[in-house]
Amino acid sequence: MNKGLISKIIPFSSVDGPGNRTAIFLQGCNFNCLYCHNPETINVCISCGACVKACPHGALAMNDGEVLWNKDICSQCDLCLKACNRNSKPKAVLMSVDQVLNEIHKVKSFISGITVSGGECTLQSKFLVDLFKEVKKMGLTSFIDTNGSIPLKQEKALVDTMDMAMVDMKSFDPSEHKMLTGKDNDIVIENIKYLAKLSKLYEIRTVIVPEMLDNSCNVDQISKLIASLNPEIRYKIIKYRPLGVRTDMIKSYVPSDEMMGNLSKIAVTNGCKNVIVV
Length: 278
Prior knowledge:
Layout: E1 3-13, E2 21-26, H1 50-54, E3 60-63, E4 66-69, H2 79-83, E5 93-96, H3 97-107, E6 113-117, H4 125-137, E7 141-146, H5 156-161, E8 164-168, H6 174-181, H7 186-197, E9 201-208, H8 215-229, E10 234-239, H9 257-269, E11 275-277
Parallel strand pairs: 2-6, 6-7, 7-8, 8-9, 9-10, 10-11
Antiparallel strand pairs: 1-2, 1-5, 3-4
């Protein structure tokens, strides 16, 4: 059976799709966003051992060249993450579908579905397909939270089994997107159009980063795209916040409420009917 490399599971989340949801974060990403708020999910641990020395509780140890994590004595202080210079996490674990389902069953009565995020969850699409098939049997919905970089037209099994997608549209301008993430955005836009046509696009999100991105142009162009596809698709405009980011890679600040309000007006004027500012 396929296993997924799991970074963490949050039993209850109200910000990862509609209703109360279990959010499952997978390890590994093909983007390297300058403002990434969870950079510890980008790479897979190579067991270099730097984190072992940093752990004050002995929750990490080397065994036959591999870092092992003892969850029972871990205090979740995350000093291991600060010690890692690879944007990785020694606490990511391989879990089978059944193991993840056991975690979902614990809270099944209190949630409306699950959302799988990352990292970039579509990099582990086979695991998602197996998981979503079982989640559907439980009467729950399955969402993906994606950077939109994997051509979903080539992932029919995944698209068929998932209910909805939430897509990060980090920048509409290709050169700006590449500067920010290291990748072009052509596939992202193709996926947005494809998912909208299938009525499987729940939300598009854009992070507003002052002095780094042309935020007004991005919101203008992205909201026009949304309105042309389906104005009911939710557009979430998000304040950049310097929490968990690599401050040596980005110099910005939290945008003002006035700035966010003006950007929201642009989206509404362009025809978006469901604009959220957070």
